[in-house]
């Protein structure tokens, strides 16, 4: 289920998880995703790492945001999410991390499978 993938051209693993996840989910280079998210932040007058900024960018790419049921708010992990969503392209958000999930696998620069998912974006269409 875990696929080690880091599109960051310098191999960074901290501070750019949004860009890494978006690049993987949209099949863009890290550089293109970074620049486009920065432009979105500029247009919104906010930082590119701000949740509303990258959420707006994802919506422009055909993603929709979804909430998770509040049945187990402290135990629903990225691994659990992958089991429940074996098909499709998703961006799963935790309290402090963002990871790309595609067809039941999670793609990240480190094994984030134990992180707790709080909400997610799904690629529509």
Describe the structure.
The protein is of the alpha+beta class and 125 residues long. It has one domain. The protein is built from 4 helices and 6 strands; from the N terminus they run βαααβαββββ. It has helices at residues 17-26, 30-44, 51-60, 78-84; strands at 2-4, 63-67, 89-93, 98-102, 105-108, 119-123. The relative contact order is 0.22.
Shape: globular
Beta strand %: 15-25%
Helix content: 25-40%
Structural class: alpha+beta
- What does the main sheet amount to? 6 strands, mixed
Secondary structure tally: strands? 6
Low-confidence stretches: none
Report the radius of gyration as a whole number of Å. 14 Å
Tell me the domain tally: 1
Kindly report how far apart the N and C termini lie: 24 Å
Strand arrangement, major sheet: 1-5-4-3-6-2
How confident overall, as mean pLDDT? 95
Per DSSP, the total helix count is 4
Helix/strand order, N-terminal first: EHHHEHEEEE
């Amino acid at each position: 289920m875990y696929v080690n993938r880091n599109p960051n051209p310098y191999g960074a693993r901290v501070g750019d998880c949004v860009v890494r996840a978006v690049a993987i989910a949209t099949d863009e280079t890290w550089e293109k995703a970074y620049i486009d998210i920065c432009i979105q932040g500029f247009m919104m007058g906010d930082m590119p790492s701000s949740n509303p900024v990258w959420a707006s960018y994802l919506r422009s790419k055909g993603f929709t945001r979804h909430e998770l049921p509040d049945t187990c708010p402290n135990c629903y992990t990225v691994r659990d999410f992958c089991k429940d969503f074996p098909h499709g392209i998703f961006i799963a958000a935790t309290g402090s991390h963002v990871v790309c999930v595609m067809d039941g696998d999670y793609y990240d620069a480190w094994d984030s499978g134990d992180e707790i998912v709080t909400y997610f974006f799904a690629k529509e269409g």
